[in-house]
Amino acid sequence: MGKRVIVVGGGIAGMQTALKLSAGGVSALLLERDADLGGKLTGWHKLFPSFTPAHEVLDELRRRLAASDVEVRTRCEVAEVARDGVMLSTGERLEADAVVVATGFTLFDARIKEEYGYGIYDNVYTTVDIERMLNEGRVALKDGTAPRRIAFLHCVGSRDEKVCQHHCSKVCCITGVKQAMELKEMFPAADVFNFYMDIRMFGPGYEEMYRDAQQRLNIHFVRGRISEASPTLDGRVQIKAEDTLTGRPLKMSVDMLVLIVGMRSNASNARFAAGAGLGVQPSGFLAPRDAFLHNVESGVDGIFYAGAVTAPKNIGESLSEAVVAADRAAARREGRTWYFESREAWRTVLKLALALTAIAMAWLIDRCVLGFTRLDTARLFAGFICGVEMWSFLENAAQLSDAPLFRRLRRYARRRIGKEAGR
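Given the sequence above, the corresponding structure tokens read:
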């Protein structure tokens, strides 16, 4: 009977993971809670920094998926994950040889920040609303007119202790710059302002995009947070802020206020963690085994991560991580998890080789050279070295693998040591 890997989440990371598994000859089952695949990308208009239409990326992933042998199930919510499968919200149990969790993130609900008036005042929008209007081909105020002054507010729901969101959402800055550029080009006569705490342009092409926004389009960047927003009698939005570079308070009326909302962890992360013993970071995102060599591994054998389920990421990072996650999941399914990934692991192997050499030398001395009582000293010395090195190897075997062979070796060593200690 064929074995398979279950991928939980049908966003871009989940789709890419399933495609990579399928291309490698591994049976993949892709589970998506919503009616359609694509995740958050379905709501985007253009992607930074190239302004590539989002539908081009999504359509290509969907086309490849349709041409593959990946099994897809939509409207299928996962309640629990385990190393050997998942439990659906319906109670159905699906077995697998490995599970890749690619459930992504949740957008911050701007209504929590009541001081900005989202959902209360007219013409206060989020970046999600702007993407939707851009996709519809028309951005306008509530009364249908074009905005003449637009303000973007960065870090809504990010780096904010008041709402317990301490982390940086990473892509908010570049999202604000991208949308400011799009609206400025749509409304050339409008004044566009970005209010920020810090501008963090971490990706290739991002800094150049930021400079282009200032120099070519004359978009204004003001270092300072908006403290509150309120409606005016003429239907505009009045904002109060402080320009922290000059130290002066600022009051301004704008036609449109756009809140750049951040990423927060999914509520399902806590449920998955409790059921499978997964680690959770203070931010609520699932914790990988480490941030370097094992960043797609959960620490629980058979469960892997891909995309923004572990931290805010951009699309390119999520797609790249999905390829690695698929490879690790396939390697685990095929029993190929004992590859060596660190100098320390290779050093341990060398120690084992030296220990075996010591045993062989002791035997040769015993059999071929000496035949007297002093041989016991040589054997004891060689045995002591061998024991120390073998114990070091077994203790560090976790750095090499969680494969059954190494687990059996560790259990055998513990039993033998226990028996010898009991004599």
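The two ends are 48 Å apart (CA to CA). Try to locate this feature in the token string yourself.
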